[in-house]
Amino acid sequence: MPENVLTLKHFFEEAREGRLTGIRCGKCGELAIPPKEFCPGCQERDWTPVPLGGKGAIVSFTIIRIPPRGRAEEAPYAVAVVRLDEGVSLLGRVVDVPLEGLRTGLPVRFRALVTGEQTAVGFGPA
Amino acid sequence: MRRVAVIGVGVTKFGKHDRTSPELFAEAAAEAIRDADLAPSAIQALYYGNVTGGEGERQLHMGPLAATLLGLPTIPTTRFENACATSHAAFRHAVMEIASGVSDVVLVGGGERVLNIPTDAATEYFAYCSDASYEQSVGLTFPGVFALIARAHMEKHGTTEEQMAHVAVKNHRHGVLNPKAQFRKEITIDTVLKSAYVADPLKLFDCCPFTDGGAAIVLAAEEIARKRPRAVWALASEAATDTMFMHEKRDLSRVTATERAAAAAYRRAGKTPADVDVVELHDCFTIAEIVATEGLGFFEPGSGGVAAEKGWTSLGGKIPVNPSGGLKAKGHPIGATGAAQIAEIVTQLRGEAGGRQVEGARTGLTHTLGGNTATVLVSLFGRA
């Protein structure tokens, strides 16, 4: 049901199981990461959930060396914007890639980063 | 719609203070009301800006508190929060309250205090201005947001870390000339390039500091402003928004909200970038100044780095940018920044900026960016 995929809770519950979900507009074909009520492109509300393969390439990245409170143990760590093969982008933590090996265009693959109740978007080697 | 003018400005010293954020605002507001040559009782409303009071000072309901500390406890007031563009957003709404005829004299501004809390806590609270689900959850910080933009700009246009360093060096040089600035010390390109990485490719000296401070503006309707020779007209004040998600930005090397807010402001004021004599823009990071000088139409897309390197944005250059020292050297008390930028432009257009005066400046522009480039305000100002 579109109502389900429109929620953040549903996106991250699916992501926790390793399934990345996008939504596609039935009118103009826009592909987006939920949640959205109206399509930003055509203003229609006709989303259909579509599974995403999770493969993509780094568009831009940074290495966070001064982290926010509670993440001192994790730093330095990499965060990247990844363009997925389906054409939609997603931000995530890059793991299991040496920091010095990071570059734009590097192929990566989605993986869920699970810490207790929290699920975050991660990317590892393709 | 009635014409609206700035008739008074006030700014505290920026830096570390042992006073609460509404106290800092009240100090600036008292200066602005004196500068306007008005009785405090002439103020009919307060538009108040603050961002992290709830987190860092355990204080919400800041508007009435600011009014109370100012000694005007009965004026209508509302607190604004638009990340780092907070008090510029408040300014736009205050302009509309006067333009619409609801009030004749309105006070607007903001206060922020963050140097009372540890740096990692301030970094966390600032990150609340990015999306919680997709961005805070992976540890993205604000230097991180602008690092993503910097890398995209470098790869697309060949912008270099040295060009970014020129922005920091120039703004520190300007800051020396501003008695209210947090940093009044010149730095070199080497100082920037040899500083530690915070979020690659941004280094410590690419980043503005954490700052405590307050700023205030008194706005008045045309009938009141016309009798005051130091009045400066608000020619336009426009806002634009972009998606909150970094992953949805169509081109990370651009800030499209800046381009849209600027286009709207130029159109409303009947001005072009070539008409602008002096600019205060949002240099939270050096790359932010480079991208903003492009988005505001002063330089072609991709040439902002070259412009910085060649000194075109320096006092004495083609288009002086951030004569106050900018966020980089003057400091960035986020809830007060927009009002402080407006205060600088008003001071410049009055010809009262002393050693950092842009000679003969008649038209000025302020640009404030909020959060992960999702909010931008652009205002234009002119002498009568």
Overview of this protein structure:
The complex is a heterodimer of chains A (126) and B (384). Chain A has 126 residues and is mainly beta. Chain A folds into two domains: 51 residues, no CATH class; 71 residues, OB fold (Dihydrolipoamide Acetyltransferase, E2P). In chain A, the strands form two sheets. Chain A has a five-stranded mixed barrel with strand order 4-5-6-8-7. In chain A, strands 2-1-3 form a three-stranded antiparallel beta sheet, covered by helices on one side. The longest helix of chain A has 9 residues. Chain B is of the alpha/beta class. Chain B contains 14 helices and eleven strands. In chain B, the strands form two sheets. Chain B has a nine-stranded mixed beta sheet, with helices on both faces. A two-stranded antiparallel ribbon of chain B has the order 5-6. In chain B, strand 10 and strand 11 form a beta hairpin. The longest helix of chain B is centred in the middle third of the chain and has 16 residues. Chain B is globular. The two termini of chain B are 17 Å apart. Classes of the chains: A mainly beta (126), B alpha/beta (384). At the A-B interface, strand 4, strand 5, strand 6 and strand 8 of A face helix 5, helix 6 and strand 5 of B.
